[in-house]
Amino acid sequence: MATTNLNVRIDADLKKQSEEIFNELGLNMSTALTVFLRQTVRSRGIPFEMRLNIPNEETLAAIQDVNMGRNMSRQFHSVKELMEDLDADD
Q1: Would you write out the chain's pLDDT as a tens digit for each of its 90 residues?
Q2: How far apart are CA 37 and CA 33, in angstroms?
Q3: Cα separation values, 56 from 4, 33, 38, Å
């Protein structure tokens, strides 16, 4: 397969931020752009979103609660015990 060079002028900060994300995804800039271009051709349009999974505020708060042992229910040693607790009239 013959290759060619592609020169693109972009904002330096945009390039830096993109490279950081691509690196976290295990990609370099060239590979990320090749993936994008191949998918563009296959889908005949802008193909997909590829992003890091960053939890929202509610999820972050729940993770923090678990890590700090806050707002936790009591422990159950069997499904039967859990079900009895759920069925109990409080």
Answers
A1: 899 999 999 999 999 999 999 999 999 999 999 999 999 999 999 898 778 888 999 999 999 999 998 988 888 999 999 999 999 876
A2: 6
A3: 41, 28, 31
